[in-house]
Amino acid sequence: MKEATTPNGRRAAGREQSLGGWLKVAGLGPGDDALITPEVSAALADATDVVGYVPYVERVAPRPGLTRHGSDNREEIRRAEQALQLAATGHRVVVVSSGDPGVFAMAAALFEALEASEPAWRALDIQVLPGISAMLAASARVGAPLGHDFCCINLSDNLKPWALIEKRLRLAAEADFAMAFYNPRSRARPEGFERALEVLREACGPERLIVFARAVSTPEESLRVTTLGEAQPDMADMRTLVMVGSSHTRLIQRHAGGAERQSTPWVYTPRSVSGAGS
Ligand code: SAH
């Protein structure tokens, strides 16, 4: 990682500030533009540069005065340094993530880069703008599966060992959390999700509810509600958010003849667990 190279960093920082640059790390929501917050839209309208993974940068319409810097998925730290550098030289920079930037996304990468970079950059005007994370969009679609205590786990072992994922799955199941899983299954490591389903089946039993919510709020959206006993690994891909209920999570079948897009049953987790207050 790059070390501080600017002598007299504080003065340099003052100069950078006066250039009027800023950096905002923004979440674009799960896909539908209607789910982008007005705060994020305003930041994008005022930006000179948008930085991020190519498909997210492409969600921002080109316009004169805006430079879009798309990069590869695995280049988070380099991308964060580029954004800091641009802001330090007077650019108004929005780093874009899907969903919320603080959930398995660019905000933490930005702070990692900031911590390891020149101290002068710590004087920059940096803000994180929240977005609607995939688990919130997905749970809203099916009802309220995350209506009581829940946890969320990234199933990718790119940045952590598989043994830790498995440990967290077991302990979350033992604590009877509802669970939301990001990055469930990639073509590079399809066996991971298969193993995760085995662990969950063992810990929660075959009747436990599981929801596969794919490409929520986009034209390719699909929802599937089933049980761990029926779940198959290929029901998930990298555009799927998977949720597993707690032992209290239940179904409400919809009345036949309802709206067509409402063909899946409602799934919800009650707000209380018996014994409360005792
Ligand atoms: N920062 C993002 C998550 C990035 S990790 C957020 O807060 O939503 C990428 C993972 O998010 C995907 O593998 C998938 O599990 C989930 N995801 C992102 N968009 C989604 C969508 N529209 N529908 C379902 N899952 C989605």
Number of helices: 8
Q: What's the name of the CATH homologous superfamily of the largest domain?
A: Tetrapyrrole methylase, C-terminal domain
Radius of gyration: 21 Å
Strand content: 15-25%
- H/E series: HEHEHEHEHEHEEHEHEEEEE
Overall description:
- The protein folds into 2 domains: 111 residues, Tetrapyrrole methylase, N-terminal domain (Cobalt-precorrin-4 Transmethylase, domain 1), CATH 3.40.1010.10; 134 residues, Tetrapyrrole methylase, C-terminal domain (Methyltransferase, Cobalt-precorrin-4 Transmethylase, Domain 2, 2-Layer Sandwich), CATH 3.30.950.10.
- It has 8 helices and 13 strands.
- Helix 4 packs across helix 5 and helix 7 packs parallel to helix 8.
- By secondary structure, the protein is α/β, with parallel strands linked by helices.
- Bound molecules: S-adenosyl-L-homocysteine.
- S-adenosyl-L-homocysteine binds next to helix 6, strand 9 and strand 11.
Q: Any key phrases for this structure?
A:
single chain; 278 residues; alpha/beta; Cobalt-precorrin-4 Transmethylase, domain 1; five-stranded parallel sheet; five-stranded mixed sheet; 8 helices; 13 strands; 22% strand; disordered N terminus; binds S-adenosyl-L-homocysteine
Question: What layout of secondary structure does this protein have?
Answer:
Layout: H1 9-18, E1 22-27, H2 38-46, E2 49-53, H3 54-57, E3 67-71, H4 76-88, E4 92-97, H5 106-116, E5 126-129, H6 134-142, E6 143-144, E7 150-154, H7 162-174, E8 178-182, H8 190-204, E9 209-214, E10 222-227, E11 240-244, E12 250-252, E13 266-268
Parallel strand pairs: 1-4, 1-5, 2-3, 2-4, 6-13, 7-8
Antiparallel strand pairs: 8-11, 9-10, 9-11, 12-13
Residues 30-31, 97-100, 103-105, 133-134, 138, 182-184, 213-218, 238-241 line the site of S-adenosyl-L-homocysteine.
